[in-house]
Design goal:
single chain; alpha/beta; 7-stranded mixed sheet; 5-stranded mixed sheet; 12 helices
Length: 327
Amino acid sequence: MARALNQALHDALQADDRVHLTGEDIGALGGVFRITDGLVARFGEDRVSDTPLAEAGILGTAVGMAMYGLRPVVEMQFDAFAHPAFEQLVGHVAKMRNRTRGALPMPLTIRIPYGGGIGGVEHHSDASEAYYVHTPGLHVVAPATPADAYGLLRTAIASDDPVVFLEPKRLYWSKGPVDPAAPLPELGAATVRRCGTTATLISYGSGVAVCLEAAEAARAEGWDLEVVDLRSLVPFDDDTVCASVRRTGRAVVVHEAPGFGGFGAEIAARTTERCFHHLEAPVLRVTGLDIPYPPPMLERHHLPDTDRILDAVARLQWEADWREGTV
C-alpha cells in the first residue's frame, strides 16, 4: 500500500502542475513512512515542500493555496498530530465552499496516517474518523487495499471538495495488485469484498482485513459471512450496505476507534432505520475499548480481532434462534 500511495502522488504530480505536496519531513526524508520517497528529487522542492512543525500553519497555508487555484496535498505525520490543525479544518477547510456559495472550491487533500496495530505509543495510534465525519463539508476516505489506496487518492486529489484521506498504518506493508490504468473509483461507493448469507460485516480501512480473516474462520462454525468495505465514510453508500444487510438479515460493524460516539454508531443507526423490517437481530458493533489508546504491549486486547467478531456473530445467531423459539 505504501508503494501504491507513492505511485498515486507521483502520477498526480506528473498529470497536473497545480498539485503540490507539503508536510513535515516529506522531502529528502520521504516522510516518516516513506510515502513521499523520491518525489522531491523528481519534482523539486517547489512542489514537494518540507514545512515547520506547525500543523495549524501547514493546513492554513494549504487553504490559501487551494483558494488561489492550486491542489495541495497535505501530510499530517500521525492522526493525533493533526489535532492542532482542527480549527483550520472545521472553520475554514470544511466551510469555505459553502461560505462563498461555491465561488471558491477547496481542492485540498489531507493525508493522515491513522490507527494502531504497529506497536506505537498513544499519540501515534489514534483513530479519529468520528471527528471528521461529523464535520459537514468534508469527504472522508479510508482505503483497505493497495488498489484502492492508489485509486481513491487519485480521486481525492482530483476532487474540488476537501478530502480527509485516512491511511491505515498497519496496512502500509500489505500486498495486492495495482493497475494505474484502471478506472478511478468514485467517492461514496462501497464494495462487497466477500459474499455470504449468514451476516454482514461492515468495516473500512484496517478493519476490512480483520473482517475477512473472521469470515474465513467462521466457515468452521458453518457461518457464511459477507464483508462490505465502505471505502468512503463520507459520502456514505447506503445502497450497497443496505442491500447486503437485507440479504443476510444481520449486521456487525467493526472499527478500531472506541465504540461510544464512534462512527459505528452512525452506521448502525442508518442501517436500522433503512433495514428494520429485514433485520433478524439488532445491529452489533465490535470496536476498540472506550479508553485512551493503551501501551503497545496491550493493544492486541484493545483492537477488534477474529474472536470478538465471531462472538458478535454468535450473539446475532442466538437472537435469531430466540425469536424463532428454538432456544
